[in-house]
Amino acid sequence: MRNLVKLTAIGAAAAATFGSGALLAADPPAGNAAAGKVVFAKCAACHTVVAGQNRLGPSLAGVIGRKAGSVAGYNYSPAMKAANRTWTKAELDAYLANPRVRLPGVKMIFAGLPSPQDRANLIAYLAAPQ
Length: 130
Ligand code: HEC
Description:
Blueprint: H1 2-19, H2 33-39, H3 78-81, H4 89-97, H5 99-102, H6 116-127
Helix pairs in contact: 2-6, 4-6
């Protein structure tokens, strides 16, 4: 009985922690640009980080803070043109987790990066490609 009381108390503490959103609102993992360069190999078939150099996808030079669908001379899908969003780190994180769910109709054929750490590393690399 004593043990049961103890367990109930632990359960209540855990519920309070979750209920406050403290765990869910945790900061994303810190990114490592060198590790992100390795992740970028998955993007490199279609993207460069060289300004003005578009491939199948638009150049990702300076993408962080850029308005979606705004690279001159690149032929975006109507969905990307109408997306009306800015590539903040948080928006990139959400998009790269599952591009076609986050932005239905885009013509980027990429399943997404399920690992939050991979995404954080990649975003660190895109912020400062080397
Ligand atoms: C198979 C080719 C392909 C791969 C692989 C790919 N992309 Fe794309 N990407 C595209 C295309 C095509 C578009 C344009 C989408 C549209 O207009 O609907 C795009 C668009 C984007 C955009 C929006 C750019 C802008 O100017 O608004 C970002 C950001 C992006 N890709 C990041 C990535 C990252 C990071 C990776 C690797 C994890 C990746 N993509 C992998 C083809 C690809």
